[in-house]
Amino acid sequence: QVQLVESGGGLVQAGGSLRLSCAVSGRTFSNYELGWFRQAPGKEREFVAFVRSGGIRYYTDSVKGRFTISRDNAENTVNLQMNSLKPEDTALYYCAARQGYTTSYDVPARYPYWGQGTQVTVSS
């Protein structure tokens, strides 16, 4: 069973930075494709960033240039560095994992494994 545990959320002023980390259990971490999603109150869960097993990365338009996803195959972690944060980035952030190639990396239903979420709050 794959388990994911996020950390690093918190309260930050607009323009500030946070770094989220997600520890992933499992013996085949290097084969996982990994994503970050977020969900604000009253809204659907939305795609934020994704990294393939080979390292190719994708981002939703609203975070391009501000957020960076990275993976550490030695530590079994996936990280999300968030800079220039805005109040609209406030949400519960989730990491997710899947095995096998997909072009639908931005679809939550494509991921069988999820963390419990970590709250990010950006004040204006």
Quick structural overview:
The protein has strands at residues 4-7, 10-13, 18-24, 32-39, 46-51, 57-59, 67-72, 77-82, 91-99, 113-114, 118-123. It is an all-beta fold and 124 residues long.
Account of the 3D structure:
The chain starts with a strand and ends with a strand. The protein has strands at 4-7, 10-13, 18-24, 32-39, 46-51, 57-59, 67-72, 77-82, 91-99, 113-114, 118-123. The chain is mostly beta strands.
Low-confidence stretches: none
Task: Profile the largest sheet.
Answer: 7 strands, mixed
Question: What is Rg?
Answer: 13 Å
Q: Structural class, from secondary structure content?
A: mainly beta
- N- to C-terminal distance: 40 Å
* N to C succession of SSEs: EEEEEEEEEEE
Q: Roughly what percent helix?
A: under 10%
Outline: globular
Count of helical regions: 0
- The percentage of residues in β strands lies in over 45%
Number of strands: 11
Mean of the pLDDT scores? 96
Characteristic terms for this protein:
single chain, 124 residues, mainly beta, 7-stranded mixed sheet, 4-stranded antiparallel sheet, 11 strands
Draw up the topology in text.
Blueprint: E1 4-7, E2 10-13, E3 18-24, E4 32-39, E5 46-51, E6 57-59, E7 67-72, E8 77-82, E9 91-99, E10 113-114, E11 118-123
Parallel strand pairs: 2-11
Antiparallel strand pairs: 1-3, 3-8, 4-5, 4-9, 5-6, 7-8, 9-10, 9-11
